[in-house]
Amino acid sequence: MSIRTRFAPSPTGYMHIGNLRTALWAYLIAKKDPEGVFILRIEDTDQGRLVEGATDIIYNTMKECGLKHDEGPDVGGPVGPYVQSERVKSGLYMDYAKKLIKCGGAHYCFCNEETIAAQRAEHEASGQDIKFIDPCKNLSLEEAEARIAAGEPFVIRQTIPAEGTTSFDDEVFGHIEVDNSILDEQVLIKSDGFPTYNFANVIDDHLMGITDVVRGMEYLSSTPKYNLIYDAFGWEKPRYIHCPPVMKDEHNKLSKRNGDASFQDLMAKGYLPEAVLNYIAMLGWSPENNQEIFTLDELVQAFNVKHIGQNGAIFDPVKLTSVNGLWLRGMDLDHYYELTKEYIRSAVKGDFDLKKIAAVVQQRANTLQEIAPMLDFFDVFPEYSNDLYINKKMKTTPEVALESLKACLTLLEGLEPWNAEVLHEKLMELPAQLGKKNGQVLFPLRVAITGKQSTPGGAIELADIFGKEETLRRLRSSIAQLENA
RNA sequence: CGUGUGUUGGUGAAGCGGAUAACACAUCGCCCUUUCAAGGCGAGAUCCACGGGUUCAAAUCCCGUACACACGACCA
C-alpha cells in the first residue's frame, strides 16, 4: 500500500517554522514512496479562532516552498472535502460519534462547565490528580436520549476502560505505554455539535486513508486515547511519527506570541525558500552522510525517519544565514542576477552594468537584504577620511597611498581599451614597477574610488564597472584630497 | 500534583558496549588573497546533566536524582 501523509494545520494566520518543518517532513515521507500522496487538510473546527485570510497564508507558503500537495481544498481529491468545517455539515462526525457510543467507546455527558470546574477545584484542594471523573458515564442510553429529546445541551465524551494499559510504537520515540487510569475522558463532540480536534483528526485520518501520521510531539501523550478510538471502531491504526519541537531557546518554543520569525518574516528578511527548507529539514534530523546542502528532491531521497532525533532543536538564525549564503553563492550568475536585480536596482540608480555588480556581490552577500547596503558607493562617491588609507596588514599609509595613486592615475589615463582583462593585466604590473606589494597599490586604489575600505569586488572589478570617466574622476578627487591634507 | 518525553562543546548534531567523541555553523589563530568576504589549514568537550549499578570494558545497558519541555481544555 502506498504511503499517504497529511499536513493538517489550523488556520491561525501564521506559519511558524516548526509547523513548516512538520509539513516538510510529512511531504518527504510521502514522496519517498514514488506512489506516495501528500494531503493538505484544514482543521478549522474551532469556530471561535477563525482568522481571515489565514488559509491563504498556508497555500502561499506551501507553494513558495514547493511543497506541492496532491490532494487538498484547492486541488480536490477523492476523499474530500478537505476542510473540516465543510465536513461537519454532512453530519459525519456526529454519525461516527453515535456509532462509537454504540460500541462502547463514548458516552453522552450533560455536565456543565461549573460542575467540571468545581470537581477540579476539589481535586486540586485535596492534592489529588486533577483528572475529571464523569458522573454521566453511568447514565443509561435511554435516559441520556430522553434528556437530549427534552432539549438538554450535551457533549459526547470518550469512554476510557477503567483498567489495563494502552501502548503503541512511535517511529521516533519507540514504545510508549500508559495506564488507562491516567487517560481522561475527553470531549469528542462539543455542545455546538462540532467535533473537537481530537475526534475529527482520528476520523479524518482514517477516512482519508492516512498511513503515516506526522505531527508535533505534544500529541504523544494523547495518542493512546486516539488508538482506543481506532480499536473501538476496529480500524487499522496508522504509523506515528511524532516530531520533537523547534525551540527559540532552551525554554521556549518558537511562537507568534514571542514575535519569532515566521516563514513570511524570513522571506522578507531576504532568505530563499530553498535555503529555509534546507535548514529546517536538519533541525532534528540528520542525513547519513555529511551533506549539508540539499534541494527538495535530494531531501526526498536522503530523508529517513530513523534519523529523526528525540530532543528539541533550537532554531539558529546564524546558521540559517550561512546556509542561505551557500545557496546564493552556488547559483549560476544568470539565475542570481534575475533574483537580485531588483535589490541591486534599489541601491544603484546610475548607469552601471548591473550584472557585473551582481557578480561581485554574489561572492559576499548571505541574504538578499544585505545586498543594497553594500552598494551604497555607486550613485554617490561617499565622503571619507584619509585615515582609511591606513591599513597595517597591507602596510599602507596616506603617504604610500598618494604615491601609488599618482602612478595609477598616469597608467589609467592612458589605458585603452578599458575592460577587466586589460585593467587586471596592467594594474598588476604596477606594484613591481613601484617596488611595492600588491596591496600597497590596489588597496589605496579601492579606497580612492569607493571611499570605503571594504566593498564587494576589488579595485579592478570596480574600476571596470565604473568605467574610465567615473574612475578617473574619483581618483583625481581622492588625490586632491590627499594632497590638501 | 499526575503522566509522557528528553539532557553529547555556544548552536545543529554523529555515535547504538571497546574510536584520538565525526561533521557543519559560530568563535579564535594561521595561510592565501587587491581590503572584506570566499577558500585552505589548525585550535578548543580532562570526556557525553548528576549519582549509583551491570560489565574485563559505558556517552552507549539498568536504577535513582536534578533540570527542561509537553499533555492533563467543549484549543489545536
Number of helices: 20
Which strand order does the major sheet show? 3-4-7
Total number of strands:
11
Percentage of residues assigned to helices: 40-55%
Radius of gyration: 32 Å
Termini separation: 81 Å
Spans with pLDDT under 50 lasting ≥5 residues? none
Q: What does the average pLDDT come to?
A: 91
Tell me about the largest β-sheet: 3 strands, antiparallel
**For this structure, what is the CATH homologous superfamily of the domain at 4-72 and 202-244?**
HUPs
Report the sheet-strand fraction.
5-15%
Describe this protein's structure:
There is one protein chain. Helix content is 45%, strand content 9%. It is mainly alpha-helical and 485 residues long. Among the domains are: 4-72 and 202-244, Rossmann fold, CATH 3.40.50; 92-189, Glutamyl-tRNA Synthetase, domain 3, CATH 3.90.800.10; 381-484, Arc Repressor Mutant, subunit A, CATH 1.10.10. A 3-stranded antiparallel beta sheet has the order 3-4-7. A two-stranded parallel sheet has the order 1-2. The protein has a two-stranded antiparallel sheet with strand order 5-6. It is elongated. It binds one RNA strand of 76 nucleotides through helix 5, strand 6, strand 7, helix 7 and strand 11.
